[in-house]
Every structure is written in C-alpha cells, then in structure tokens.
Amino acid sequence: MEARASGAFPLPSGVWSDQHVATFLHRIGRWAFRRRRLVSGVRLGVLVVAVVAAAMAPAGRFGPLADQRAL
Questions:
Q1: Which residue of 26, 45, 53, 71 shows the fewest CB atoms closer than 10 Å?
Q2: In a domain, 26, yes or no
Q3: pTM confidence score
C-alpha cells in the first residue's frame, strides 16, 4: 500500500490520521494483553449477563415466523 503525502488529502478537524489510529489500536492491544485475565473475566461476565437476560426475557407474543400473518 502506498503512503499518502502529508498534504495530498488534508483531513478535516477531529479526524485521526492512519498513524494515530495505528498507535491507538496498538496501545489498546498492549493493554489488553498485559491484563488478559481481567479482559477475559469482563468478557465472561458480559456473556453471563447476556445469557441471564435472555433467560429472563418474556416469551414472544407470536409463534414461529411461518405462522405469522401480516397485521
């Protein structure tokens, strides 16, 4: 891939350059790797909450999609 010249396509205010995005993603990845047990625990916790919420959700009012008619 060809690198852009710094003045070829000026970015609007508030838009990050490719280098800023790459640096940001690298820092997030490094933080997540160093704290991988915490990240795994948070992901597992979110999964448990999602499963519990799905189990507690009320059943739908309608049967299978094939049985539904246009209202």
A1: 71
A2: yes
A3: 0.57
